[in-house]
Amino acid sequence: MVQNTKEATPPVVGLALGSGSARGWAHIGILQGLDEIGVRPQVVAGTSIGALVGAVYASGQLKEFADWVQTLSAREVFKLMDLSFSGGMVKGEKLFGFFEANHRNPNIEDLPVRYVSVATEMKTGREIWITRGPILPAARASCALPGIFPPVKHRDRWMLDGGLVNPVPVSACRALGADVVIAVNLNAQLIGAHLPRAAGHADEHEVAPKGERTLWHRAIDYLSKGDGENPSFFDVVASSVNIMQDRLTRSRMAGDPPEITLIPMLEDFALMDFHRAKQAIDEGRRLVEENADSIRAWAGMD
Description:
The protein is an alpha/beta fold. It contains eleven helices and eight strands. It has helices spanning 26-36, 49-58, 62-69, 74-79, 93-102, 135-141, 170-175, 215-224, 233-255, 277-290, 292-298, and strands at residues 13-17, 43-47, 114-121, 127-130, 152-154, 157-160, 180-184, 260-262. Strands 1, 2, 3, 4, 5, 6, 7 and 8 form an eight-stranded mixed beta sheet that branches. A hairpin with a 5-residue loop joins strand 3 (114-121) and strand 4 (127-130). The radius of gyration is 19 Å and the shape is globular. The relative contact order is 0.20.
């Protein structure tokens, strides 16, 4: 009998990076942790913050990006937020302008991994997969969280946050050829979580002096205040987003379950806690370490 000595082809590993605002910095730690155990996804699908982190990873800029986000203080985060009352609270021009000025912006089709950004077309409500063209605008198109960031025009179509239709894009990973999907769900255990007043002022020393308080600071104070009986504006927005994405995530993942689901335990994170990157990154790395044997087995490494 002639034996077949040809080694089995390892599975194509896909990573579905979910939406979840500031909790999305956990994606960085998960990608770092996967690299440390020798698992390198060939397919990356991202929604909202997952699209942004996925874009940085796919274009080979994760280390620099991780180093930068861990230097951000609450005050520096808010300096990057330009207040607007047209379509969303935060215009986003400063924030994404900074990304584009400090990060490479290759075309998606030229990347060494397959990448897709999931967005929502505002006019029709359709789920849109962006797989071609410059990667940073593609990621930005997925990050228009209603009430916070305004819609983004991408190729003559207005786009909203991808989390409105596909918070954890397992299906997009499968469509791009992934045999094994590792899904990162940031939306579990969040019902009841909200954006507390402290989110804008994490530490007492970071509060702007009275003479330096801008319109942004005053607006944050106003919109964060509840009267003890009625919820604040941010309470309403954050809770609504959490409820919607939790229910939608359960439904989508039940219909197309991943092989592995990682759920960062960041339930105390507020919507805009982008200055807490180190904590989220550490949690992402912890999750990979905890599940390393299972991840390696599914990736065909054991």
